[in-house]
Write a structure and sequence with these properties.
Two copies of one chain form a homodimer. By secondary structure, chain A is an alpha+beta fold. Chain A is built from nine helices and ten strands. Chain A has two domains: about 60 residues, Orthogonal Bundle (Arc Repressor Mutant, subunit A); about 160 residues, Chorismate lyase-like (Chorismate lyase, 3-Layer(aba) Sandwich), CATH 3.40.1410. Chain B binds a DNA duplex through helix 3.
Chain lengths: ~240, ~240
Amino acid sequence: MTMTQPLLHRRAGIALWRQLEQAIGRMIARGEFKPGQQLPTEQALAGRFAVNRHTLRRAMAELEERGLVRIEQGRGTFVQEPVIDYKLGKRTRFSENLSRGGRTPGGRLVRIVEEPARAVVARGLGIPRGATVVVIETIGEADGQRISYGRHHFAKQRLGGIAAAYRQEGSISAALRALGIDNYSRRSTRVIARMPTAEEARHLAQPRSRPVLISESVNVDERERPIEFGIAVFASDWVQLVVEP
Amino acid sequence: MTMTQPLLHRRAGIALWRQLEQAIGRMIARGEFKPGQQLPTEQALAGRFAVNRHTLRRAMAELEERGLVRIEQGRGTFVQEPVIDYKLGKRTRFSENLSRGGRTPGGRLVRIVEEPARAVVARGLGIPRGATVVVIETIGEADGQRISYGRHHFAKQRLGGIAAAYRQEGSISAALRALGIDNYSRRSTRVIARMPTAEEARHLAQPRSRPVLISESVNVDERERPIEFGIAVFASDWVQLVVEP
DNA sequence: ACTGATTTGTGCGTATGTATC
DNA sequence: TGATACATACGCACAAATCAG
């Protein structure tokens, strides 16, 4: 592919590195380099624009400062993937949350299992430990990128029909609506960071060396009775949680 | 040190592993093993109680489930330190936050510097990029344990006196009060997870292999004008952020 | 970057006690 | 009494992670 280079004007009162910054910034904006893609090496780029590598680096540093690229020593320079703002509010619904941010939400069911409630789950749902819970495991996507792996817990005694409803409706909120639970909201949310288990890394298609953000939350109905205990594992490379008071 | 072992009763109608769970749980509760301390190896403990390692592991799994111990493959088993809940609310003040949770807050000043505002900082404070900001770097402690490393940014033009006030008062909120800013609140907070830089790991006295939780927030006055842009780096081993809607 | 030692994780085979039909 | 199923307990071996040198 032959690429016409934007012309650089020397002695025009605008520093070369600024012109470079503008030029490369525009190329990224136009999509000539795609998010996550590795840029040509500094040497190659400097050669292409016929400037010294130091000049190019000055421009690159500025682009990194602006958040357009990410420079990794020993690896290369990459077009920064836009980070997804995931709002933690009283009424957080996955799809709604993303589409409001201009993203295309997606997702798929991993599996639905029944298991005895572990201590944290039992505490969250307000049921005795060991009582049977229905667990719906999902993967959430934004613009085709996997961003979360969620385990949604429901007390079987109260919401045993959730599995069938989910299979019919295809989403948690729709399934709950089908069961007559229209108005639920998030009580408290705890946020922690840790390294992913092998399974979590696999579900998120991310290396085990990158940390994950985890949110644990309880959804309650109008009478403050627990409906769902959810654990969401977010790929920290793609997501930042936003708390709006 | 000679330690009398609680007696285990075989064929008594109570499974051996349950008796083990009770026994070790009580030893932890009595403080024979202190928070954070490594327990003897499974082999050693199994030997001491004269049971098979599998039996001991069954008991340990139960203790981990109860949150009393933390088992790390290749390292050992440790008495779980109580995790600190750090509330992210509209009026978050470090000391108040911790003492409300029954902790003894502490902290110390790392340094105070002036520097040109980077892009994120400038955007947060609503000032032009490159304008001078005063940065107060602090380390926060709870019960003597380092839990956070904070960089608090203030526009020099507006709050140039913050450095002197902080040195006088010893805390951010007191310094702001001394400058006549009594009533400020948190606008939005962004939370991310990543691996710490070498410097961050040093300030938090934690290994570089453990991730950190980072919160970026803007504090505004009554008229919604930005006062402070703060970046707090939390040791994820010790802190979980709690969002109360 | 490699090695060996330590420690937890996992699998399999066997034996025994307990509850049920 | 016997047959069956399940939980408990033990022994051995190896895998996987961690750490020090």
